[in-house]
Amino acid sequence: MHRNLGLLILTAVTSFLGGVLHSQDLYHVEKKLQWRNAPLTSEIIEERLQNAAAAYSDQAPIPRIALYDLALPADSAECDRLHGNAVILVTAVVQDSSEIPLARCYLQSEGKTLPLQAFTRFESRVSDRDLVAQVFGHYRCDAFYLFPVRLHKESTQLLVDFKSHRTAFHLDELSETIPPPSSISYTDNPPTGEVLQFILREFPGVKTVLEPEKTEQPHQ
């Protein structure tokens, strides 16, 4: 159950200024939170969203918010079973439903763009009574991507493109290089069962939505 570098959760907020909801030239706020050596529960995600909504309620409505969490393999054996991959969860809440699902999540490093392989996603609606809906919108998407450990390098940029209105939404600049085990064979197609088992352990709050009838088809 150990996560060797824990969780990194970052909130990126584009504030609503000048009444232009769809502008790319919006004030972009990033807040880096702590590493955690524990699974990410749905309660933690909700707490992060609620805290952000409270902090930015005086600027509502805000077009969108995105949080991400990176879960790394516990050890070299698990890294091998996952074919050298970690898993990243991006949670986005938006005012305009046409912006989700996310178009892509990707890295930029040394002038190259490196798309991350989508694994599965699910969408939901935030309650009208929820402060998150009042500040960031009613429409939520949670998307999982495979994150090759070998690509976690210092100064690499992590970004997402929304389905409409906003591209190159900056989530983070990775602050360190994680040296991957040299014996790992890296592939884009780790066993689906191994990835699901890893997700259910590291993101226990998503267990019900990963039932077959409630989720997109996982990457094979």
Outline of this structure?
This protein has helices at residues 42-55, 76-81, 131-136, 192-202; strands at 7-14, 28-36, 64-71, 85-94, 104-109, 112-115, 117-125, 139-148, 157-161, 169-173.
Described by the principal axes of the CA atoms, the overall outline is globular
Task: Write down the domain tally.
Answer: 1
Unreliable stretches, pLDDT < 50, 5 or more residues? 1-11, 14-25, 211-217
Output the strand order for the largest sheet: 2-1-3-4-8-7
Question: Any overview of this molecule?
Answer:
The protein is an alpha+beta fold and 220 residues long. The chain has one domain. It is 17% helix and 34% strand. It has four helices and ten strands, in the order ββαβαββββαβββα. The strands form two sheets. The chain has a six-stranded antiparallel sheet. Strands 6-5-9-10 form a four-stranded antiparallel sheet, with no helix packed on it. It is globular, with a radius of gyration of 17 Å. The two termini are 25 Å apart.
Key features of this structure:
220 residues, alpha+beta, six-stranded antiparallel sheet, four-stranded antiparallel sheet, 4 helices, 10 strands, 17% helix, globular, disordered N terminus
Give me the secondary-structure topology:
Elements: E1 7-14, E2 28-36, H1 42-55, E3 64-71, H2 76-81, E4 85-94, E5 104-109, E6 112-115, E7 117-125, H3 131-136, E8 139-148, E9 157-161, E10 169-173, H4 192-202
Antiparallel strand pairs: 1-2, 1-3, 3-4, 4-8, 5-6, 5-9, 7-8, 9-10
